[in-house]
Write a structure and sequence with these properties.
Mean pLDDT: 91
Structural class: alpha/beta
Radius of gyration: 20 Å
Largest sheet: 6 strands, parallel
Strand content: 5-15%
Shape: globular
Number of strands: 6
Strand order of the largest sheet: 2-1-3-4-5-6
Number of helices: 14
Distance between the termini: 46 Å
Low-confidence stretches: 1-19
Helix content: 25-40%
């Protein structure tokens, strides 16, 4: 009889949620309405390399949402909450790493900062163990101000800004300053986020036609981002100033400190497998 109870107890532990808990990684794109972010925003080699850094590499997902909306919109944070909840529940994830890029970091910060906004948020917050925020637009960008004023940036950077969408309006410098002081956590003078939010900062753009590194992720994008650097601080990735990328959480590293050949990461290159970024992140998570 004692042997029977021992077997029964072992059986209960074998099917308990705790025993089945798992690690996972989710990739959260930036501004734009995505339906195939794996291929259109990131690329498969970037995703497939990074997911090898977790103990169960098959537990990964690539988010596809409409991040042309304000971060609190149902199509943005609501969509993200739906997809993350389905992923967490289906895989019983309790150790979730989020890899974000650009405005995706703002949408994630909205969820982490506002647990009472949506009944799904607490479960997500409890599961998230780490956020690697690549080139996050935490402090906004002067280019968003320029687009909303109808300047040349509307034609020069339409491919990355999404023109005058609500998400671009949101990323105006003064608007992000307001959100950071009221609704979002993790910036100076505000409560800390519930989980580490580690920023990877892009500091420059190379577009020399004779330099092979300028062609990673598309030479035409490098040329465009080199142009827009003229309206930004000396330290920028062509879309975001380093101060904006560093405004929330902590800085994990600035591109040249760790990339192959000490190469800078433009805003386009920081979402692709350029200069070993994907292996650096894989080894970190």
């Amino acid at each position: 009889m004692k042997h029977y109870y021992k077997l029964l107890l072992l059986g209960l532990f074998a099917v308990s949620p705790l025993a089945q808990s798992a690690s996972g990684v989710a990739f959260v794109h930036g501004t734009g309405d995505q339906s195939d972010a794996l291929n259109d925003y990131w690329n498969p080699n970037f995703i497939n390399t990074i997911r090898q850094g977790i103990s169960q590499p098959n537990n990964y997902m690539v988010v596809n949402c409409d991040f042309d909306q304000y971060m609190w919109d149902a199509a943005a944070s609501g969509c993200l909450a739906t997809q993350l909840t389905q992923f967490i529940d289906s895989k019983n994830i309790d150790d979730l790493t989020l890899i974000t890029h650009s405005n995706g970091g703002n949408v994630v910060r909205w969820i982490l900062s506002n647990p009472t906004w949506d009944s799904r948020y607490p479960n997500i917050i409890n599961a998230v163990n780490q956020v690697v925020a690549i080139a996050p637009s935490s402090g906004g960008t002067p280019l968003a101000d320029a687009v909303n004023q109808g300047s040349v940036f509307e034609t020069t950077l339409g491919w990355i800004l999404g023109y005058g969408s609500d998400a671009v309006k949101q990323q105006q410098v003064s608007w992000m300053s307001y959100y950071n002081s009221t609704w979002l956590n993790g910036t100076q003078g505000r409560p800390s986020l519930s989980t580490p939010f580690e920023a990877v900062v892009g500091s420059d753009v190379d577009s020399a036609i004779w330099d092979g590194d300028s062609y990673c992720a598309g030479y035409q994008y490098q040329v465009a981002l080199e142009t827009t650097q003229n309206w930004l601080d000396d330290c920028s990735d062509g879309f975001l100033e380093c101060s904006s990328q560093s405004a929330a959480g902590t800085v994990w590293f600035k591109d040249k400190q760790r990339t192959r050949g000490s190469e800078p990461l433009s805003h386009q290159q920081s979402r692709r497998d350029c200069f070993n970024l994907h292996t650096i992140i894989r080894d970190h998570i």
